[in-house]
Structures are given as C-alpha cells and as structure tokens.
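Weekly modeling sync, notes
Attendees: AB, CL, MP (scribe)

Item 1: holo prediction request
CL wants a bound-state model with zinc ion before deciding which constructs to order. AB pointed out that an apo prediction alone won't tell us much about the pocket. Agreed to run with the ligand included and paste results into these notes for async review.

Input as submitted:
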Amino acid sequence: MKKKGAYWRKKLHRPRIRHVSLQDFLWLFIALFIATAVFVIYQADLTRSVSPLLKQVAIASLSFLALSILITYYEYHAFSKSEGIIRRGPKEMVVALTFDDGPSPEYTDMVLDVLKKHQVKATFFLVGKHIRKYPQVAKRIIEEGHEVGNHTYSHRDLVPSSKRRLYKEIFETQKVINEYLGINTRLFRPPRGIFSESVRKFVVNHGFTLVLWSVSGVDWAKMPPALIAKRIIRYAHPGAIILLHDSGALIRSEGHSRLNTVRALDRIIPALKEKGYRFVTVSELMNISAVEETSVSAEEFAIKY
Ligand SMILES: [Zn+2]
C-alpha cells in the first residue's frame, strides 16, 4: 500500500499527461482553419474584386483572431507543460467544489448555509482585500471546516506582471490569511485562471500548487440556476474540480449577485450525491491515494521526462 499523498507529491513535481478532450481539438481546429483562410486569402489574386488595403485588413484581423485563440488556449491549457498545476484529481468518485472571489458579505453566508444543509465541505479561493473588508465572513468559512486558498490580493490579471507585483499579490494575501484566519495555505488560483509560464514558475518555486478546474459553472455569465446546475451535473466526472463564485463581477472584483449560484448549489449537491459522488476539499482530493495510477505514472514519467 502506497503512503497517502505520495501519488500527488510525485505527480506535482513532474509534467503530467493531460487528458485531451474533444473541446481541445475543436479550438485547435478553429485556429488552424483561420490560419488556412489567411494563407488562402494571401495567395489568392483578389486585385479585381477587392482593394489591396481590404485584403491586408482581412489578413491582419484573421491572423489576430487565430493568434488570440492560440494564446487563450495556451493560457488555459498550457500545451501539456503543467508542472505544479492541478485541474482534476484521480479518477475516484469524488468531486471538489471551489468558490472564487469571496468573501462576500451577502453570498458567502448563503453558500455556507447550503453547504451546511447538505453537510458538504468545499474550498474557497479568497481575495486578500475582501478578507480585510469582511473578516467575519472569512472566519466562518474556516470555523465550519472548509478549506481556503489564495486568489491574489486585488484580483487583477497576473499577465503581464512583474516579479514584484506577483510577490505582492500573493504574499500580501498570505499575510492577511494568516493574520485574520490564523492559517497558511499552499493552494493558489490565478484570477480568471490566466497565468503565464513565469507566473507558474513563481508560484511553484514558492511551494504553492496552482489549482485550476475541470468543470466550470459559468455562473459569472448570469445564467439561471437551473442552467448552472444542469451544466455541472452533466459535466461532473470522477475527480472533478468544480468552479463556482460566491462573489465577483466580470470587470470589477465584486458586485454581482451570486443568488443564482446559491440556488444552483442547492440542486447540484443532492444530484451529484445521488450519482454516487463524495464531496472533498482540494487538499483532500490531492491526498487521495490512487494506487493504480501511481504504479504507472511514476515510472512512465521518469522515462519520458
Ligand atoms: Zn476570480
């Protein structure tokens, strides 16, 4: 029997094999398609029907679109080079609920009430300045046995950013978490899931695990509760890390109503329980020993990398 947690310790310090989904192919296909279109337009003799300027504008805008898709894809998926990152846990009947951008004086309490009602533990990625603003709400998260992760101090995008700003965003939050909650966290999630290679390196070198997600509720898009719930119940899979929000807004770091998320949550938990899932925190997910995967991964990675 392998020691608990050995799997993740090994795995997190080596590049991991990604599960390539159909969606990944779709994005790459679209980018490739646009690139081909650019090439065709470039090659075609359009002098009679369109002006050279229009041709150049078309090429430039299509190239920009293709590049944006590739960059977005890289930001979210990092083309398989993802040491120190987790997007999902081992394939066991567990899921981890995560809530970003809190604490919020209105909605975090509501989320906590729903979690309490269903006796489920979750992980909250808190924004440093929000903890300072609403320390009592943040304290309740800890008091009720949930886990807390670092979601930067100001919730501004980390790309591009200097080492100095990165340090401030991450360690100012660590300070606040320690000061108000009396704990330390090694879990970090970048705002909007956007990070660069230098952000990843910085985070990993400072002993954090960069926690992303494998199922998003897309609750920031003001979807009705039934849709948020339907989406999550449909896409939930063994070892899923589910992303929801208990605060936040599209542009500012707080302000939107999260009532739909709260209502969706009340449907999601019983539905997933019925499917046989158990709810764990992100750390618990990382510590679940997956013996059958360990035996393959350790040797395979050693040879490959
Ligand atoms: Zn966020």
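Recorded for review: Residues 100-101, 151, 155, 191, 248 surround zinc ion (CB under 6 Å).
Action items: CL to compare against the apo run; MP to circulate these notes.
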